[in-house]
Amino acid sequence: MSLRKKFTGTGIAIVTPFHTDGKIDWNSFKKLIEFWIAGKVEYLVVLGTTGESATVHGEEKQQVFSFVKEMVAGRLPLVAGIGGNDTREVTHDFKKFDLNGYEAILSVAPYYNKPNQEGLFQHYKALNDATPLPIIMYNVPSRTGMNVAADTQLRIAHECKNIFATKEASGNFEQISQIIKHKPDEFMVISGDDPITLHMIACGAEGLISVVANAYPKDYADMVRLCLAGQFEEAQKLHFKYTDIIASMFAEGSPSGVKAYLSEMGLCENTFRLPVWRVSEKHHLRIKELMKQARLNLSLI
Q1: What is the mean pLDDT of residues 245-250?
Q2: End-to-end alpha-carbon separation of the chain, Å?
Q3: How far from chain centre, in Å, is Cα 259?
Q4: Rounded alpha-carbon distances, angstroms, from residue 172 to 54, 148, 202
Q5: Residue 299 has pLDDT above 60, yes or no
Q6: How far apart are CA 266 and CA 229, in angstroms?
Q7: Using an 8 Å Cβ cutoff, are 278 and 256 in contact?
């Protein structure tokens, strides 16, 4: 199967469940994996930002990669989140981790350092030259503090052949349109923003790496499939069903919001590793009300 076929549709940037003592909750992790697979998403992204990758290190990171691979057992393609703001360390991690069973790597743009556009290009060129697997680059200025400009992404797309896609989360439709218009035919643009995925697919994006699908995998994967089939009127119904839910997931930070939903569903504890913290009690009550409304709307269909 081609990379395009594997990664068209909905991927989930999966959470990492923890016990209250901070240890990984492997039993909940297994339960979540089965829930996501039953939701018929196309692939899973392990240890991205939503997986609290910044506080999972070394051998523990390998344990997560290996556990997810063993539990999925080939039922879905897997993407490993390996990124950072030290290019040499990222390329070292490419060699250090056993990525057997993974199809690709998601690598976020360097954060905190605020490199210029040439530095961003050289970073991804170095990753391109060192990678053991195809790479999805990830542009998320709201977290990194630096936008990978359209010209830079297009330069990477044309010159770095091991980088086959961009997870584009700038929210800038002028930039998104420029990338989609001028990219090589084989290069994929994947939405990194749940609330604007319908709009991005209408512009030519080929799917989504989602946060909301952690909690609502079936509906959101169905929404993406309807968009990709050009059935936007039907897709809009699911898009608007989750508009307020998505807003609530990000209102007090992510993955704080989505774990509040998952805890209410009984799928994992509402726990994190510092400095990430749970949403406020007031906002959690708002989330419970939104969940109640979503269940009511479903019962009326």
Answers
A1: 97
A2: 36
A3: 15
A4: 26, 11, 15
A5: no
A6: 33
A7: yes
Which residues does 6 contact at the CB level (< 8 Å), separation at least 6? 42, 43, 77, 103
Rounded CA gap, 125 and 145, in Å? 20
| Residue matched to tokens 């989609």 | 180
Average pLDDT over residues 230-253: 96
Average pLDDT, the chain: 96
Active site (catalytic) residues: 138, 167
Q: Average pLDDT, stretch 69-94?
A: 97
Q: How many CB atoms lie within 10 A of CB 134?
A: 18
- Complete DSSP assignment for 161-230: TTEEEEEE----HHHHHHHHHHS-TT-EEEE--GGGHHHHHHHT--EEEESGGGT-HHHHHHHHHHHHTT
**Apex CA 156: angle with CA 152 and CA 161, to 5°?**
175
Q: Minimal CA–CA distance to 220: which of 5, 6, 11?
A: 11
Spell out the domain ranges in the chain: 3-233
Phi/psi for 105 (5° steps) reads: -120, 135
Angstrom distance (rounded) from CA 170 to CA 50: 17
pLDDT at 194 over 90: yes
Residue type at position 174: E
With bands split at pLDDT 50, 70 and 90, how would you rate the model's confidence at 296? low
Q: With respect to CATH, is domain 3-233 assigned 3.90.1150.10?
A: no
Paired residues of 11 in beta bridges: 43, 209
Tell me the pLDDT tens digit for each residue of 114-162.
Answer: 999 999 999 999 999 999 999 999 999 999 999 999 999 999 999 999 9
